[in-house]
Structure prediction request, 306 residues.
Amino acid sequence: MISLQSPSAVVMVRPHAFASNPETRDDNAFQTLANRSAAATSAAARDEHDKAVEQLHAAGVTVHVFDDEGERDTPDSVFPNNWFSTHPGGHVAVYPMFVPSRRRERRADVIELLKREYRVQDVIDYSGLEHDDLALEGTGAMVLDHVGRIAYTVRSNRADPVLLERFCTHFNYEPIAFDAKDAEGRDVYHTNVLLGIGTHYALICLDMISDPERRATVRARLEESGRTVIDLSHEQIADFAGNAIELSGNDGLVLALSSRALMALTPAQVAVIEASATPLPLSVPTIETAGGSVRCMIAGIHLSRR
Prediction:
């Protein structure tokens, strides 16, 4: 089964100089410092990445792996979903990033592979807008309902509202923007920490959406799409339970998420997922110290093979 929402091929970046990025620490409350040397931390992250790739391959997901040798000072390169996205019909977007180190993650060889192996009609590059201090950090800033054509977006410095409107016009999505805060009242920096959309369900912490009317709207729109809403707690979000991505494997749909995230879910929540998808837990505790989890590590390819 191939789902429009859930790609069967992905891009991942193998880190060689992974670290918790000081440039992004101010507004990413999920970041922590690894309790080991830089070399040991980087090696552990690389090992976690490689094992995750093996598990995805075993599930029948095609994984295109690119090595980041660390020469460009890109500590967050293991999270490629922020700088580009792909869309049915052969469309690719390249995004402007908030901090300089993340801008260096963009690489032509990834786009060239997409053009070589998939049907790419156009590449719309928004990255030049960084010169105007504008950012829209891909499918971190936006969680896309590819079926209902909705771009759910938390307002933040990583998601400029003018750029969001421009993207939605170009790619035919309806923007639904809202404010969100964590349990300590801090602004949420990326939408994909609190929302993950599968084919038949959506994982979301509705309590994080500040405005009650907007909260009700988001729930209603998710339910209108025929999905069961799995309402997550603040504690589950802190364990990265919202940072998951559904993929199409050999034996149907799989939900890739971290082992920590799966352990945080209740049996009832897991049962809703298992009604249509198989949970695929990936152990990435070192990578999670950088403030991102499995969803951030995976850039889905929503393109047709050549």
Remarks:
- The first strand starts at residue 9 and ends at 15.
- The chain has a mean pLDDT of 93.
- The radius of gyration is 18 Å.
- Residues 38-58 form the longest helix (21 residues).
